[in-house]
Amino acid sequence: MFPESNSLSNIQTQTENVLFRRRLVDRVLRVWTGVARGGRFPSRDQVELSMLGEDGANCCVIAVRSPVQLSYFVAIGENLSVTHCPNDSLSGVLLTHLPQVLSERRCLMIEGRAILRGAGILYRSALFPLSEDGVTIDHVLGAASHRLLRENEQLITPLVQTKWL
Q1: Gap between the terminal Cα atoms of the chain
Q2: Average pLDDT, stretch 106-117?
Q3: Is 50 exceeded by the pLDDT of residue 20?
Q4: Averaged over 75-99, what is the pLDDT?
């Protein structure tokens, strides 16, 4: 009458695999986790934008400096480039959350509504710590994607939600 629990487990695993392939943030998290060394942060060399294939266009690497306001982009994918619209970019969203990642020493996912190049969007982004020695965060990998708001969705006010990964 009821399916065996083993088949339910297989269905759940297949569903999770489909979702992980669909979302940029999840695909990059999978790469980051795959090269993390026993609870230590991966190094910048282990997670190059070129290793991310097509996803590299939606990613960036931030060099961390002290004070954090002196941090800067050392690599930025074409879709995050501030050259398209210097005062209105998803890369700017990533920079605003850099202090949280540095203080908590964890990956952070950021979702929200915003205006990008004059249009209302929903975005999902994440920041992943990188470290040459596995402990001190010296770079951060960022990933961000977005879609335009649909006709039935409204940008009432910009909304930002964060979640630790």
Answers
A1: 38
A2: 88
A3: no
A4: 77
Instruction: Check if the beta carbon of residue 110 is closer than 8 Å to that of residue 126.
Output: yes
Residues with Cβ within 8 Å of 155's Cβ and at least 6 positions away in sequence, in order, are: 113, 114, 115, 120, 149
Distances 22 to 9, 56, 108, 112, 165 between C-alpha atoms, Å: 20, 15, 19, 18, 17
Neighbours of 55 (CB within 10 A): 18
For residue 105, pLDDT over 50 is answered with yes
Q: What domains can you pick out in the chain, each with its CATH number?
A: 5-164 (3.30.450)
Report yes or no on whether pTM surpasses 0.85.
no
Residue 31 confidence (pLDDT) above 90: yes
What token pair was written down for 85? Answer: 């619209």
Could you give the dihedral angle defined by the CA atoms of residues 102, 165, 134 and 33, in that order, rounded to the nearest 10 degrees? Answer: -150
Distance CA 157, CA 114 (A): 8
Alpha-carbon span 80 to 2, nearest angstrom:
48
**Secondary structure class of 97 (helix, strand, coil):** coil
Q: What is the torsion angle, in degrees rounded to the nearest 10, for the CA atoms of residue 86, residue 110, residue 16 and residue 105?
A: 110
Tokens of 88: 């209105």
